[in-house]
Structure formats: C-alpha cells, structure tokens
Amino acid sequence: MGSWILEAIKGSSFRTKLSALRKILFEKSKVPDIxxxxxxxxxxxxxxxxxxxxxxxxxxPSGKSRIGYLLSRNHLDLLPENIEPLYYxxxxxxxxxxxxxxxxxxxxxxxxxxxxLESGNVPEQIKTLYNKIVDNRNPFGKIEKKFNQYPQxxxxxxxxxxxxxxxxxxxxxxxxxxxxxxxxxxxxxxxEMCCGYLLYEIGDDKxxxxxxxxxxxxxxxYKPKAIVSLCPECVYTYRVIYPRFKVNVKPPVKHITEILxxxxxxxxxxxxxxxxxxxxxxxxxxxxxxxxILVKILSKIPGLELKxxxxxxxxxxxxxxxxxxxxxxxxxxxNINRERLTELLEESDIIVTASPSAKKGLExxxxxxxxxxxxxxxxxx
Amino acid sequence: xxxxxxFSQKETRNIDKIYKDLVTILSPRKVSKKFVDLVxxxxxxxxxxxxxxxxxxxxxxxxxxxxxxxxxxxVKVVKYAYENNIPIYxxxxxxxxxxxxxxxxxxxxxxxxxxxxIKIFKEDLYVEVGAGINGMILETYLNKEGYTLGxxxxxxxxxxxxxxxxxxxxxxxxxxxxxxEDMLLGLEAVLPxxxxxxxxxxxxxxxxxxxxxxxxxxxxxxxxxxxAYLKIHPYPRKRIFISFASETLEDALNSVRNILWRGxxxxxxxxxxxxxxxxxxxMKKKAKGKIGTIIILEGDEKLVxxxxxxxxxxxxxxxxxxxxxxxxxxxxxxxxxxLPEYAPLxxxxxxIEVAIPWSKAVALYNDVINAxxxxxxxxxxxxxxxxxxxxxxCFYFIFGGLPPKGSxxxxxxxxxxxxxxxxxxxHGGAISHHHGIGRMRAKWIKEYLGDTAMNILKKIxxxxxxxxxxxxxxxxx
Lengths: 381, 477
Hints:
Chain A is α/β, with parallel strands linked by helices. Chain A is built from 22 helices and eight strands. Chain A is globular and about 75 Å long. Chain B has 17 helices and 20 strands. In chain B, strands 17-14-16-15-19-20-18 form a seven-stranded antiparallel sheet, with helices on both faces. A five-stranded antiparallel sheet of chain B has the order 7-8-12-10-11. In chain B, α16 packs across α17. The radius of gyration of chain B is 23 Å and the shape is globular.
C-alpha cells in the first residue's frame, strides 16, 4: 500500500478508517492469488496465445482463474467439463510478463488440476496422456531405444528429450557432433526417462516427484561435468521445477544455446548469406530468461541477416506440441501453430528456433523450421 | 447449478434445439452451451458485479455463446435469432465497466474476438481490422510497420476495436489523437435483420447524415460491428516529457485551456488533484499539497519543440517537476491492481467519468468530490482531468468505501453513483465521457437527454430493431 493512501483516507470517518485499516493490515495478505487474478480485467490477454487464437473468455488468463475461483469455493462442481478450461494453457508464461502481480496462471490453477486428477474428475484425454507417460515414460508413446549408436562415456551428458527421441532422433547425432566441435566429450545414457514436465502440467505431483527422484538418482550417478538438453521445457523442469520438490540434478542442466553462448568467443562460423527469422521459444525466452540468446548466437554468423517477427523477445508467441492442448484440443493447437508460422513467414522462409517442440509444432502446420543444432551443424568450424 | 443469477430476465427457450440449429448453421467449434462458457459471459468488468461474483452470484447467464470467424458467420446467427426472436448480446473484450454486455434476457452471446484480421493501407494512412482484434496486438503490428493508432485506453491489452467503437472509448493520448470517434473512417456492421451495412472509409463525405455515428457508443443496440477502418499516424519521431506543480486546480486548468486555445496539442495531459498528486508525484516532495500535471508532447521534431515552448509559457506560474513523474506514470499506467487487491476485502471501488465546460469545471469537481465524500462509508475520493478540449474537460473520479453497518455493498455503491450523477446533472455536465451507459447509468440517461432526445433514441431503436434483438434491456431503450 502506497503511503499516499494514508493521506488520502484522512478525510473519512473514524469508524470507516479503522475498519478499512483493520482489513488492509490483517486481511489483505490473506487474499489468494487466484482471486486477484480473477478480478483483473485480463491485462495479459494480449500475450496469451490461447486467449488470442481461441477467443473464448473462459480460456483467457483471468477467465481460467475465474473458473478456478468458482471451483475452489464450490460455486461450481469439480466435474471434468468444468475443469477442462484449466488445461487450455501452454505454460508459456506470456501472462507473467504482463502481470503487475507477477502471476503465472498455470501455477495459480495447478492446485485445482491436482485435486481434479486425484479425484479422477479430469477429461478423458488427460487420462490418456497420463497413462502414456506412466506406461511408456514418454507422452508420445513407446519408442525403440537406439542409444547404442551414441557415445556412452564422456563428460557432458546430452539428454535426449521425448520430442527429439520420438520425432527427430537425427538431432541427437548432430548435437553430439556440435558438442564435440565445441571441445566437449558428450555422452548419452540408456536409462534416461521423461523429465515429467507434462505430469507437472496436468497436476500430478505424486508421480512427478517419483519420476524426478528416479531421474536425479540416475543422472547424478554418472557424475557428469555438465548436462545439456535441446529442449527448453526439459531444462526448465530439471533446473526450476525439480528444486521446488527438493530434487536436484547436478550440475544444473543447461540448454544447448547456453553452452554455445559460453563458447561464442572461441567459435568460428563459416559465412552464410541468407535471411532467417527467429522463433524464440517462450520457455527459453521467458521461463529461463534468455530472451536474446538466439539473436546473440546467430548474429555472430558472417553474412547472415536476422529478422525478428512482430512478437519476439519476452513478448514471443508460442509454437510447439509439448502441452496438454496437444491431447485435449489439437485443432486449437494447430491454429496457434499456424498463427505463429504465418507471422514468422512474413519475415523470411527460413525459420530458426531452439526447441524440438517448436520445430514439430511449426512443421505440423506445413512449415519448415531448423533447430539451432541442425542450423549450425554445417557452418560451425 | 450452484452459482446464482442476480437480475436475469430470462425467457423460456428450447436451448437444445437452438444449440443444434446453430451447430448446423456454423460448426461445433463455433458454438457452446458449456456451463463454464455461460458463466464466463454472464458479466463484464462492472465492478459491483465482481463483488457479486466473489459470492458466487452472476448478473445473468446467456443460453448459448457463439464464436463467429467471419462476417458471414455473424449474418447467419443474427438472421436465425431474428427469425426466432432470440436476443443477442455482442461481446468484445468484456472490459466495459457498466454492465453493458450483461445478457439480461439470456439468449445468444456473440463473441467477436475471432474477427481479427489486419490490413494496412500505407499510402492512404489507414488500417482495416476485424472488430475483435485485440488493441495491443493492433498497436504492436502498427509499430512494427512504423505507425501508431494513437489510441491507448487503460484496457488496451484486453479490449477490442469493436468494444472501443461501441462504448466511444478514448485513450490516454487523446488530446493529440482524439477519441475513437475521431479515428473511425468507416465500418461494417450486421444489422438486427441480418443485413450487412458497409460505410466506406472515405477521407470525408457529405452524403446524407453520417451513419457511422449510429454505432459509436450504441453499445450494440443497432448492429454488430464486424469491421472497422481506422486512421493511423506515422510513429512519432520525437517525444518530450514535462511536469509541473501548480498552486490550485484552477491554475492548472487555466494553463491547459490556454495551451489548447493557442493551438498546441500535447498527446498526454493529466492534471491530478491534491490527493492523486501524492500518488503520481510521490518522488517530488515539493509537489505535496499542490496540483501535479504531467504532459507528453510527441510527433514531428519541429512541431514538438514549438509546442514545448507554448506549454512552458502557459505553465510559467507553476513549478517545473521534470521528467520523473511522467516516466513513473508511463511505467504504471496499465497497473490496475487496486480493484483486485481491495475488492476481496469488501472495499467497494469504482470510477466515474464526466465532462464539463471550462466555466463550470472547478465547481463541478468540488461538488462531485464532496457528494461522494458525503456518502457514509466513503474512504477515499479523488480525481484527475485527463481529456481536454477547447471547450472543456473530462474529470475522472475514483472512489473507494466500505458499506456502513446494516448496508450492503450494492446499496453503498448505488448511493455514491446517485450522488455523483446528481451533482454532475446539477452543473449541466455530461454524465458519461467515455465509459458509456450500460445497465448502471441507464437510470440517468433520460434526465440528461430530455424526453425528446430519449424518444428519438427509442424510435431509432424500434426502426432498426423492431424485435429488440440486440442487447435487449440495455441503456433503457
């Protein structure tokens, strides 16, 4: 409360003043965050891809908190159809960037998703997703393990995220090659499992914690000198979410762009005379606070012209498949990816990103995007 | 259903049949009767309805919500509703603060937010947009192309162009760029019968009465705006920030009036009363007990420099306060945390904006502030003047209070509104400057307009919408 308010209320009656001060001093801090979000006029709507593309009040950031509030006070029954809008979130944290309270709507409503999952009151598609993760340790289904063809013994552990393994296994070799050229000795491990990101998103704390503990034990047993992943969601999960559950992977996982950034002074690039547009994945730009890292790396390439789309930096827009919408409303997710692809193509036909999920999302709607690893493979000396 | 409706006038309808018909006409993705969607469209940002919301009470639930993706979709729904006598409630960003979008009689809510194309005409300096385009997305797009709309309402990040037109919205940079009525070159609207009306974006036309004006601040009574043509401006090349502390409100108002009369048009001018000066000039101890004014000049370098001279001359009787208060305001201007923070404590908060000629400005300010403070339970009452014209000014009053013992929040809220509206009418002021009428102000519209004007408004409504399909029950017409 600004001190000006104390001046401002001087003229009111003693009883009103006393009553208000009592409320402000003793009750204000107890107001749940979800209530404050529910009472906001959606000042972050502009940054929410779901709200903009879906256009529904119910799936807007404050709209979700309003439904969440009514559920939490039992004004609405905890039924699958009532909890469904709370899964209409990409966890891109666009809302966080524009929130004067610094709220993340996905976090505000997570407790309710947790309650719904525990009581079995979730939409069928969420149950399917849950079962896939638990049964296959991969939300995209069972995959053949090919770890034998990758280096198994080294210093830098390269994590193979679920999207890379499922859709772009060739990226693993390229990443190995890139790391070697940067002077590292990379290796992969056979026991790697899903990091649990989507379990966290759908609200299953129990299974998430179990997976986090197992993962940390496996990874830590290899005593890697560094750990790297191509997937911003994986990095965020290991580095930011695991510690919230008192689980730590050592040393902290880095995104491939962070490793590249550290080596920028010693790396030489061949000339590349092209114009490219950059898609900054929200989990990297906002979640990991690396909004300019891709520009920093790519601007070192001689001859390369960089174009930024309308929404960039911390105002970037989502593209990808690693979210509950992929299961609950794939048509909407397709529209979101299409919106982003159109925006990127306005700048250049060549799109560079740093997320296998974004690459897949853009390709699902007919686009072609390069992950930074494959883009750099040919030009890093 | 656990939530309760507060003032629904709902009529009995075969909702399942309407739903099936609409799904056939549109597609399943464009129609919803899910209860969570009905709840979401039961209200807008009318502050008292947010207090009801906390208790699980909602103003009124619609029967169906539709999400058209083209003008043709809107036409299909409106024709269907007209043939079957079902009320329609248009919905944009839901940031209206007077209950104008509340679906009082149930029926169909048409959410326009999927109508969101942007097409820029650089040679002729205007833009064509879908009515549902988000304000900040439009501004971001224009900025990237080297332009600005110059329209910055506090709801910019959440509201839509259609909503701006329907409430006659105005932005923080209005003294230079005007209100939405000054930006609107043309529009497309779907009439209650389903006919499409296109009013072309000519630079000017003297071809009968200007029909665009029928849709500005009509709150969806005469048609659903589906497309708008808006003037744009080259992105300003220079900006200057200045602020002052004047001895009295009258001094500050006189300075601004003289600036405008000399032909200068600063983009932003905000005069704060002594209470609000404490908030925005908190870093300037010398401003305490004075009237703070912040000013932003922007545009072509030479013009801006000339305007700066005029501003400094006219504020020569005030103390210059530098750029800091302006920068602070720029940083905080979209921070609307008061209501979300204090409403859950039972504190009733709202804003009331009115317009008044210069000659009566100070008297009106004093009377409205005293009238609000005179209502038992009022904790704070303060104001700023933020939109200026050669003829007068808009005052924006902010109040907060606790209902006295034995009184409900709604009773306290209505008492404050009554006091403020009566004080405004006593001085001959306009009872709304840019928020509109909605359901909250409807009881004073007749007194402001007079019988003849009110009857004409009702006759126009009947002529265009003989079945009262659009926004049934709104504005008292």
